Amino acid sequence: MTHPELLDLAAGLARRAAAAIMAVRQAGFAVEHKDDHSPVTEADRLAEALIVEGLRAAQPEIPVVAEEEVAGGVQTAVAPRFWLVDPLDGTREFAKGLDEFAVCIGLVEHGVARLGVLLLPATGELFGGIVGQGAWKEVAPGAPRLPIHTRAVPAEGLLVLDSRSHSRPEALAPLLAGRKVASIQPMGSAAKFARLAEGAADASPRPGRTTMEWDTAAGQAVLEAAGGAILTEAGTPLRYGKPGWRNDGYIALGRA
After folding, report:
1. What is the rounded CA–CA span in Å between residue 35 and residue 245?
2. Residues 144 and 239 in one domain
3. What is the DSSP secondary-structure string of 214-241?
4. Which of 44, 48, 168, 49 is nearest to 95 (CA)?
């Protein structure tokens, strides 16, 4: 399958997963906790099963690394090409009744996030992108895919999106050093990458080793396709296939 075909595959599966998530939300659900104390719900598991099954059926030669499978002990070796799936990023926000949660499906090639989709189930917005080929937004199922681009930093400074559930204000300074900041707003989940990609915000720092690769791969692909970047605290592009699938601290930028 070509990159556009793989992106269409991921987009279709994200739509199915989002429908399942919203059905669970409407019916009501219990919140459990994994060994690392992070929350998990029936929506996480159902969405992941739909996505993983669909990816493996369509392209069985491409390995899939998915959050809940890894939490359950599934071990997948790093490959030149593999999917990273977070079926419901922002489970804390989902459990609290907030709308800031996302379905994330990203394809990694040789350590680089190459393409991905981000879907915000609460609003129906779907974002997709292929690095080097551009990014788009689909406001609802069946709606036209409209090109999106990051914006130039406003004269008043950066609109920064901070993590809602993992905010560490004292740790943001090194990542924002030398940059003029107009305001800092909280936001949960990978929705932050979508807002950067469409030019609604300018930066999103995440200090420390607090995220996993499935949290960022889809968002990085969409953001870079729209003209942005994700850089580690050392100033290098965020890469994939690291030990334990854990990320270093980073800053996501609308314009690098």
Report:
1. 16
2. no
3. HHHHHHHHHHHHTT-EEEETTSSBP-S-
4. 44
In a domain, 153, yes or no: no
Token code pair at residue 177: 């050093």
Which of the 8 DSSP states describes residue 178? Answer: T
Q: Residue 70 belongs to what domain range?
A: 3-148
Residues 220, 115: Cα–Cα separation, whole Å: 8
* Verdict on whether the full-model pTM lies above 0.70: yes
204, pLDDT greater than 90: yes
pLDDT in tens, 125-180: 999 999 999 999 999 999 999 999 999 999 999 999 998 877 777 778 888 988 99
Give mean pLDDT, residues 72-94. Answer: 95
Torsion sign, CA atoms 134, 232, 164, 107: positive
Hey, CA dihedral for 94, 229, 139, 83, is it positive or negative?
Answer: negative
Where is the domain boundary, 127, 148, 169? 148
Q: Which of 157, 154, 128, 135 has its CA nearest to residue 218? A: 128
